[in-house]
Amino acid sequence: MRKVVFEALGTPADMVKVIELPDPEPAPGQVRLRLKIMPINPADLLRIEGRYGAEAETLPATPGAEAYGIVDALGEGVEGVNIGDPVLPLGVGCWADTLICDARALIPAPAGVDVEQAAMLKANPATAEAMLTSIADLAPGDWVAQNAANSAVGRLVIRFAKEKGLKTVNIVRRADMVEPLKADGADTVIVDEGQDLTAAIAATGAAPKLALDAIGGDATRMLAASLGQGGTIATYGLLSGEEPVIGARELVFRGITATGFWLSAWFAQASGKDVRELYGTLMTRLLAGGFHTEVEARYPLDRVSEAVAHAAKPGRSGKILLTAE
Predict the structure, then answer these.
(1) What is the pTM of this model?
(2) Active-site residue, 52 included
(3) Which residues contact 193 (CB under 8 A, 6 or more apart)?
(4) pLDDT at 52
(5) Rg of the chain over CA atoms, in angstroms?
């Protein structure tokens, strides 16, 4: 088997390498997967840099939180899973061509699904859906504000919010993304040109009940100040590399709630039924063509350093995928 490892923290393209090991055998209750497609997510890069998660990284480690693969071998006592089944693993360490995981930690990938889109189902679509349903009590007609709206998560938030009858005000830094986001269903798109974004959101007439912050720093403050009385802001990313900032006025006098969202923490609190329902809903939407994540490039696993460098570039138009060839 081949897998990607990093043995020190630093610039991702410089830290990752591919190693070869003997094929592992599944223990009782486990399965072995031959992985085919492994997306690269911002969280993967942050993890290699040592800027992701609450705990210090144990090294060496293998990145990767998403993949699509085929069941290749079964451990003793495994039921309900068959060799040849296409699946999505819920575990981590997915930048490899072979993975051992718990047989209970698999999402079935139905026949006819686009395998690349399925490989990207676990993280971004689940994050978008869970943020819209678990952070604030939203009803049709409510407004949601977000920055980094042209990111994979941001575009899914727009589509899923539209389905729920919610309205969105979306902040981007590229004027060429205005029309694509409106085509996704965005109600309002604001191009950040250094203006007062709180005032720009207010000028749209929106008083958001929920704000989703992927940037941190002063971007958090401006989003929080745009919320209606008693609204909630959730930070789920730190693209700026800066700690979130929020004004005392918002917390003390306007009753704004500041929280964070991390899909791993959601998993830890959710029941098995909640997880199955979430991914069942997402898979049904995917099969029906309800959403699509753009892919900019694909790299074989052996070219992981190039792939990671590409994924770190600003202004990409789609995801970067690793493939096992």
Answers:
(1) 0.88
(2) yes
(3) none
(4) 81
(5) 20
